[in-house]
Amino acid sequence: MAIKKSELYSSLWSGCDELRGGMDASQYKDYVLVLLFIKYVSDKYAGVPYAPIIIPEGASFKDMVAFKGKPDIGDQINKKIIAPLANANKLSDMPDFNDPSKLGSGQEIVERLTNLIAIFENKALDFSKNRAEGDDILGDAYEYLMRHFATESGKSKGQFYTPAEVSRIMAQIIGIRDACTTNDTTVYDPACGSGSLLLKVGDEAHAKVTLYGQEKDAATSGLARMNMILHDNPTALIKQGNTLANPLFTSDDGQLKTFDYVVANPPFSDKRWSTGIDPLNDPHRRFHDFGTPPDKQGDYAYLLHIVRSLKSTGKGACILPHGVLFRGNAEADIRKNLIRKGYIKGIIGLPANLFYGTGIPACIIVIDKENAHTRKGIFMIDASSGYIKDGNKNRLRDMDIHRIVDVFNKRLEVAKYSRMVGVEEIEKNEFNLNIPRYIDSQQAEDIQDIEGHLKGGIPSADVDALQPYWDVCPQLRQTLFKANRPGYLDLAVSKQSIKTSIYEHPEFVSFIDSMSALFADWRDRSVETLKSLQADCHPKTVIGELAEDLLAHYTDKPLIEQYDVYQHLMDYWAVTMQDDCYLIAADGWKAETYRIIEVKKNKEGKTVKETDKGWTCDLVPKQLIVNRYFAAQQAAICEQEAALEALAAQMTELEEEHGGEEGAFSELDKVNKVNVAARLKEITGNAKPRLGDKKAAELGLGAPEEAILCVWLHLANEEVELKKALKEAEAALDALAYAKYPMLTEAGIKTLVVEDKWLTAIAAAIHSEMDRISQTLTRRVKELAERYETPLQQASHRVAKLEHAVNAHLERMGFAWN
């Protein structure tokens, strides 16, 4: 059976544990990723004639396995695996597997490398069989590892990775997905890092394009080359060197090579950008028409390199700190010249703390040379508030990405989010592009109404602000509010009944029913599509089409936000549905059970104990089988569980009622069967409760100690018997469910997975949006009612009355309050 995508990731990440020790994440990433690379290319290309990657004889992963446990394991890997592979495929800057400063020496390095190799020996990690055509499982695993490495590396060493979410945005807004691309279409990243951004752009093209990248750091450029291969782009050209000082992609006449698309996430505010270059005499004339960037701020140096590297019809995007939008002096001149030439198509402000190298907010500057001469403005988006917390970083959600891309590509002007800013307006602001100057994204302040506080009454303006609700339920407003005086209203129902008045109002009930019907329509349409999935399907295509259909289905619907609905589906995809689709892509609709074996190993990594923890099925969990085929047995178990809970409650109540200093349980250090029976024997000579004593205990608090202990012991014995019966019933149900799997037909499995599992979970998530809508209205109405329910005069009268009462109490106590 194919390995689940999530298990593949966690399995590879566990390999990092073998290397951590005192080694920095930016170092041990090299070893883990190289092992991933060698395992993958060995599985896919070993023995394959004319393969894009050459696996020399004796240099495959299987050959590496033979070195496990040998005292010279590191040296053998270097000489017999790394060197032949690197030489045959022109790979450089591979890590040293025999470096004692990083891997330890003696037995330490032997155990560490042996255990690391063992991680990749897992039979489920057969990469030649676990990659669905069209879905880059291994490339995604690489991205997963890179994200984790960047997270652990901290601010100083996280530069080798651009968050995939930001890369996706850039790839989708530069126009490559709408272009007629061919193999002659070129994409370039002058600061490519590990290559993730470059690859994302390539993935958006309809046809295979040619990728170029240059990276200053030697080790990171090596990672980029491997990343290209893992993403099925073995012909991508990655060069190592300082792009600004020595650009390596040049034409025959020595000038910069130009490209159709250029993207980059260069180092923010690089203070050493001019090392090795004379900006005033740049042979590539990158700064001639715009101005020379400041010595200690290299942001515009990279942006101008991008502009110069674009063809006359080229398009690009660059991630830069917000400072480039408003800093003055030399940068202001460069900015003005870029704007006047019409090169800046758009600016997207991103949330703070997205990137691993810094916590400052950044922006995406979109360049378009092709339409520069007709450009009359710059399209701006303030997306700074759309994110989710993820550990100590912020992360863009799928809905945030989709919203940015939709708004930018369709030039949608959304209040407090986006607008087209004319060049004339920018000139009036002295070419300052700071987004808050043009987009006020601040949420409106909830203003306190002074007259409302003085005289009472809810301001009509606050109720009018809830107009989207009244558009859907026009009579609901009259139900909830009544007239007070001009401009003010009173609550027409009690505060306690606000919720029921909303939930049970015919218009709101009708709205909820319409939303349920809306989902049912999409669900019915999706059932057959999902049931038609076959082995070798493309999971990424599946979710792409499904999610876009759902988003379109909920567009422009009242009260409900389509991107929130979209996010519910994408969240479920990430947690559950993605793994299921990859299982189906690999094995088809097979519901195979397997045992859960807990393995305990000793310090040497040898298995010393295996414990059977039961069984499971990934595609069709046991609970789905129980719910559909054995509901009666499950209901009986639920009744037994309820009875057990009731018994436990009775015992607890008895202990609390008679647990005082003179209570029946006061002589016991701990209330349990052994202690209660011993106490009973001590006072009666008989450790067994008499049947008549239970009736005697009904006398209540005055019941004798003997009777109370007998009752507790009766309940404890009943609890034991019920637990035994419950365990037997659960075992019987488990056996019934286990026996059902071999009897399932493919049609039955599809029904269980698509209807009972996927669509039921998605329905519950989307229907929660209805609860959110009603709760938001309920909370706001109650808040307004409470805010203005006590006018100042009434509050003052109440204070005076309370003050008078307090003074009277003080006088009776002999105190005079002056």
From TrEMBL:
| InterPro entries per UniProt | D12N6_MeTrfase_N, DNA_Adenine_Mtase, DNA_methylase_A-5, DNA_methylase_N6_adenine_CS, Restrct_endonuc_T1M, SAM-dependent_MTases_sf, T1MK-like_N_sf
What EC number(s) is this enzyme filed under?
Answer: 2.1.1.72
The UniProt record lists the DNA methylase adenine-specific domain at 135-446
* N6 adenine-specific DNA methyltransferase N-terminal domain segment(s): 10-120
- Please tell me whether the keyword Transmembrane is annotated for this protein: no
Instruction: Please name the GO terms of the biological process aspect recorded for this protein, alphabetically.
Output: DNA restriction-modification system; methylation
Q: Name one GO molecular function term.
A: N-methyltransferase activity
Segments forming a coiled coil = 637-664
> Which UniProt key words apply to this protein?
Coiled coil, Methyltransferase, Restriction system, S-adenosyl-L-methionine, Transferase
Its catalytic activity?
Answer: a 2'-deoxyadenosine in DNA + S-adenosyl-L-methionine = an N(6)-methyl-2'-deoxyadenosine in DNA + S-adenosyl-L-homocysteine + H(+)
- Pfam families hit by this protein: HsdM_N (PF12161), N6_Mtase (PF02384)
Identify the domain of life: Bacteria
Similarity annotation: Belongs to the N(4)/N(6)-methyltransferase family.
Instruction: List the protein's name.
Output: site-specific DNA-methyltransferase (adenine-specific)
- Write down the species: Methylobacter tundripaludum (strain ATCC BAA-1195 / DSM 17260 / SV96)
